[in-house]
Queue: 4 jobs
Job 1
Amino acid sequence: MRYAETDQMGVAYHGNYFAWFEIGRTDLLRSQGVSYKELEAQDVHLPVIAAQARFVRPAHYDDVLEIRTQVTAVSGARVTFAYEVRRGGDFVLATGSTSHAAVDGRGRARRLPELLRRLLA
Amino acid sequence: MRYAETDQMGVAYHGNYFAWFEIGRTDLLRSQGVSYKELEAQDVHLPVIAAQARFVRPAHYDDVLEIRTQVTAVSGARVTFAYEVRRGGDFVLATGSTSHAAVDGRGRARRLPELLRRLLA
Amino acid sequence: MRYAETDQMGVAYHGNYFAWFEIGRTDLLRSQGVSYKELEAQDVHLPVIAAQARFVRPAHYDDVLEIRTQVTAVSGARVTFAYEVRRGGDFVLATGSTSHAAVDGRGRARRLPELLRRLLA
Amino acid sequence: MRYAETDQMGVAYHGNYFAWFEIGRTDLLRSQGVSYKELEAQDVHLPVIAAQARFVRPAHYDDVLEIRTQVTAVSGARVTFAYEVRRGGDFVLATGSTSHAAVDGRGRARRLPELLRRLLA
């Protein structure tokens, strides 16, 4: 965890967890052979339409964090990811989820590519 | 909205809304005569224990945003705020809420000061 | 200053000043009748090619900051802004500058629009 | 590079480089057996008193970046680091430097610990 991500309580500012969730889902997609960068190049964008988190224990500067991510729902045009942020494998610091709509570059709804839907199912 | 808050979709990165919510509750507290800075000086801290948001319409660079905040629950040691982020008074861009525990500087639970509880009730 | 902008030293993280400088130059442009958003719509982008800052006194949460900005150099394809971040009008917290190249949406050098050059001169 | 770090030009927002520089110097210190976290626990803080950067090529989402860091000056109470941000080992995206004063928790100047000075020399 970066110094830039601390706040004056000496812990990670809660807003940063949503950027960490993004790292988690990017890594999950990549582990399935999907590059989010390439998805965007194919005009598939997955903006966040809902996000939530529960903060159980604080994260501190220099903590090594692990983000565990799984897909909890996938439909024609939506996908939901769930996350656990852990320290040292042992302690859950936070849990959360994000829901995403598939849209094109103009923000119009589109279907998730079949391949992506199958990979995530 | 700041250029720093955009992402490559050309809209506000969703993680930034949680910092905007913070501006909303700081302003609400201040309108009730409570300075969050002074609360902290009295060893009352209100870390976020849960946060959620729904993103309805994107915010764009240079948009003038309004954050409407209200207290939706207050108990001995907890308080919950609800938010609406609006543009131009007309369009709701996002809604959300944050729940906070009252703790001292060491992170131990403490009661919300009576005055604060009354103000927020 | 936002809570999100503090770090665990209890002061503003130095990287945030560059986002504040951006607010300063946006406001300066606007005071000259130039909207940076409209500049971009006309395919004029002003990416930062160099930035520097000196940090004299720390900024604290809830400080009301003022950013004073002036143009210190303008040529066919470049412009440099200088900044002072002040608190309460009295104390200089930081000084800095940013240099910008004019480019089009593909990153190719282009001349600053004549009108902009005249306004900034 | 994180999606959160992009801006609407589709590249890394320049203010983020200063957080990356911080990662570079933390790693350099660690490679010398010095944990910045432990330094702070010993009441040695190294706030940034000056920072500068030159941005040569843009960084894009999902780029794997390398930060090369070296100490360019160290005296009784100050230390300066220089940085190169590279992509793929080949391309320099940015260079920069940060200067730091050694202070205690109250912000008063103090000498760098002898051991640290020797390690960095």
Job 2
Amino acid sequence: MDKKGILVVVSGFSGAGKGTIMKRLLEEYPENYALSISATTRAPRPGECHGKEYFFVSEETFEKMIQKDALIEYARYVSNYYGTPKEYVLEQLGQGRDVILEIEIQGALKVKEAYPDTLLLFVSPPNAGELKKRLVNRGTESKATIDSRLKRAFEEAQGVEQYDYFVINDELEECVQEVHSIIKNEHARVARNYALIENIRAELKGFAKGE
Amino acid sequence: MDKKGILVVVSGFSGAGKGTIMKRLLEEYPENYALSISATTRAPRPGECHGKEYFFVSEETFEKMIQKDALIEYARYVSNYYGTPKEYVLEQLGQGRDVILEIEIQGALKVKEAYPDTLLLFVSPPNAGELKKRLVNRGTESKATIDSRLKRAFEEAQGVEQYDYFVINDELEECVQEVHSIIKNEHARVARNYALIENIRAELKGFAKGE
């Protein structure tokens, strides 16, 4: 089976529980996964640490990273840059770890373009009513914020067809195991095992010749 | 998640253990799976039962099945027909069971052509040496038979690129669980969940309009 790490993008509606799923995945299988950390030019919020939530860099540094092709993908939202540093991701993949990026749909499609064997997962609650309920139940968001999140969710749902898996987060622990097994099984995809298949073929050819 | 059954073709080198894997799968998950039984015009061998190993039918009956388009795929080997009756397969799929066909590579590709959302799994021992060893260790086959099986295996390995998964049968119970989880996860493929995705989208659209 393929031993190289797989690049995995996890996207999903806000309120779908992506963050929690990924946290659990890394807690349970620390040897299997690495979480990519984004770089950003926005200022850290209270409690955020450099190298944990984000790498906080200056605009100048970020633009140098763009020039040096040191980012897998990047985008500018409002007046800040956000991007995925390449070096760490490639290093972890080379060590056989599956690297998870949590990014939204436009970024995901850019990653897929640059690295066509990226696995794209989309996490959703079982239905939209549940999504609304979860946003409301947080109790921390205003009606306007909830409405704008729901509108954003509708927009995000437009690109889902380009994803590989649509994972329902109904019961958290089940969902974590499902995501884990989807990624694990992906290593057995024929397209990721050409070298192994070629080896077996060459051996069989030898036997058929009576070697 | 998609509730319709998935048509699954399992192929693999003879000696790879396909039969045992499928037997274990049906024993462990009888509610999930149905095994398709082929029809054939060859005579039953001692111990073989009609409706268990095969449906044993006359040449006339088989040709009527062909005419009535009652077979998913069929082929003629030596002087006998072999084929997959359609009715049972479609009935089981409709009931939400995943239906497994154990057929070789030419048949598998015909099934995929007729039913493009068929999942194709190829089972292999970890390497060709292991395959040879298993054939030799059976102790029931002559050297000529083993050689011809190895030659056949080499020929079969030619179509593997058209399969979805390349499953290594190293440790039986692990392999059974892997096959089970591959099939289970397949239900979460985006392409199998368009209706669900459409529903969520329609709901979100409603919320965005303030419904």
Job 3
Amino acid sequence: MEELRPALYLFPVGLSDVGLTEVLPQRNLDLLRGIRHFVVENLRSARRFLRAAHRDFPIDECQFTELNEHTPAGAVESMLAPLLKGQPIGVISEAGCPAVADPGADLVAAAQRRGLEVIPLVGPNSLLLGLMASGFNGQRFAFEGYLPIDEGERRKRLNEMTRRIDRERQTQIFIETPYRNNKLISELASLLPARMLLCVASDLTGPRQSVKTLPLERWRKEKYDYNKIPTIFLLYS
Amino acid sequence: MEELRPALYLFPVGLSDVGLTEVLPQRNLDLLRGIRHFVVENLRSARRFLRAAHRDFPIDECQFTELNEHTPAGAVESMLAPLLKGQPIGVISEAGCPAVADPGADLVAAAQRRGLEVIPLVGPNSLLLGLMASGFNGQRFAFEGYLPIDEGERRKRLNEMTRRIDRERQTQIFIETPYRNNKLISELASLLPARMLLCVASDLTGPRQSVKTLPLERWRKEKYDYNKIPTIFLLYS
């Protein structure tokens, strides 16, 4: 077992149900072996991840703490206790990269405030994969998370995004609750300029992966069904 | 040798001089074996990458085309010829992920216009790794590339970034020519609010990796030397 530097290690997890070596470097799996303290978004999926990484992982010798949207803000700081005693901590999200669109960011911020070392590890991130395959500007881009639900706010946000594409050549990236994916595409196609390009990047790294860039006027006529499939949306012109 | 789907495969490359399995999934290396047509940012470094991936890689049987800032825009389309005949193409950048802050985006856009399949693969990306380890908002963020050089334009951009942090809670990410890294930090520390947080993420995945988040008032007193080390800068408050 490798003796690890005491640090907060951020372990990405696969986005879909494929083998770990399809989407993670071997190095990540090797590092896991040296860690016994974990902060995890979901206990069950983190244990499954560890067992997939190493069939013989000594899960019963490990300490797990859950950090997710139910965790009170005041409880985060104390999760660093093992690291303050010199023991490495692993952070494991449910999918994708810890601390990007994920509650782990609070824990990282607390570690940074205390001057503790934070080590981010390589792994799959759907918005980066979507951006790579979109053909859009990768020199300037923004990730906006979810669009506002309120109709007026939503229009305002879409107008602002259109402005930033035109004036700043900034690719706009956002997500939607998966059961509303189809509705979002028809909404974008009806509200935004016909020639604007929409890229729909779906089931990234998964068996049904598809990344398609078309002008909105083509999306209007296109047949598609992204219902309930994790999908990233990108706009550019 | 695996028979590959005809597609444009985007292969990330390491950011620093570490072993490939430290930063790339085994899957990427396996896929390379099935490809004989490559579009590369730099011929020498692409060949080095292929040899590092597989000592016996049949480089002499491969066709390489360079795509970089010297390539005329009109030459990009024809690079897709092998794929139009049903043969997979691999895209290899000099460092990081193809098509993100890199000329590969034009080739991807051309493939998308023709309805060809594009397959992005997982690998290291410095801005994503920096964001993960910064502790900043990963739900909304923007990558701005380089700041403008003209002093007036530069101030205007910094003011706009400050506004977007305050009003939109949007993390601001940017880069600098590496020999000006130190100067940029003192510039930010003197121009921006004392309590704004600056994260400096340097030599990511490399032996001198360091990711440090501090308020600008602390950076003013801090000792640092990031001269000529590839570095990502992130602002938030």
Job 4
Amino acid sequence: MKNRGVLAVISGFSGAGKGTLMKALLERYPNYALSVSCTTRSPREGEVNGREYYFVSGEEFEEMIAADQLIEYACYCGRYYGTPRSYVERQMEEGKDVLLEIEIQGALQIKKKFPDTVLIFILPPDAAELKRRLTGRGTETEEVIAARLSRAAEESEEAWKYDYLLVNDDLEECTEALHHLIESQHYRAGEQKERMRQIQEDLRAYRKN
Amino acid sequence: MKNRGVLAVISGFSGAGKGTLMKALLERYPNYALSVSCTTRSPREGEVNGREYYFVSGEEFEEMIAADQLIEYACYCGRYYGTPRSYVERQMEEGKDVLLEIEIQGALQIKKKFPDTVLIFILPPDAAELKRRLTGRGTETEEVIAARLSRAAEESEEAWKYDYLLVNDDLEECTEALHHLIESQHYRAGEQKERMRQIQEDLRAYRKN
């Protein structure tokens, strides 16, 4: 009897290292599937349709909303972003743990609809380290860095609503911790219902004999 | 900043292998402390005061109840069993994860008083395997085995109230799973409060500058 997969939503400040973590998990363990979002924004250079995002038109996106084909969606800076339902459900049915890297608003929508979803927020060890990482990339202007830090301050007001806050200090350690955290969700009482029911039934039968 | 330890209560059917699991965890990882219960029953052959139990008189036990020195207690077969508060609290303060192997009623009492406690129920892979293990010991009469199976059937009605149900099929795998499950509790949002508050404060300060 193959267990149904877990849906793990990963969020975190820009610079917390979410992308690197997802990549490490997917490379290292065969039980993960990465959900790719849809967006109405244009592809940036180097982005591939179906890898970073599915790039769709505004009309297509609205048709997906109308047909209830998205498990969450949100609008940022005038562009839609959403998570296609079919991929997530199919992978979970097949026993894969689905990783979904999205923003806080979408994450909270999903938790409300599917309370079994595990919400994980990735934190830097401290604010100074976050600033160092954003600065260290060397590709952003001071204004962009200031905007990201400001956004992080706002996001930190909502991170409380997540189930777990995981510190990404050392990539290796954090990847393992994230993996073990997601694995542990399979032992939640609700996930073991079928096995427990079977044991109970068999124990009762012994008692009758 | 050393994090406070987690209190993990482990229960399970007789024959599920709880004792062996606890022993493996304690031998393998330095971050665990095993809480030893008090009881008013007499020591059995080979039992050492302070190792299996603290053996106390009925009067002493009632004084501990009156002085609120027990975080839970229950009466089985006319004998008291209880968990001394001071050891558990001291170990948790020192950052140790405290393991407590007790019965369901005591476990539910503790969860009510201390909702951060994680309740873990150890299951056999199936009822037939449980029967095999109980029979395989070769030390119990058929009546005793029947009584244990009957008790397991009763306990299975309450195991639902636990946070996690962990199957002990392979000792090695189950020990690792249990360890990772307890480790993961440290990432719960409530446990990361102090760090999160600090990051938030620092991010706000950046915004002001």
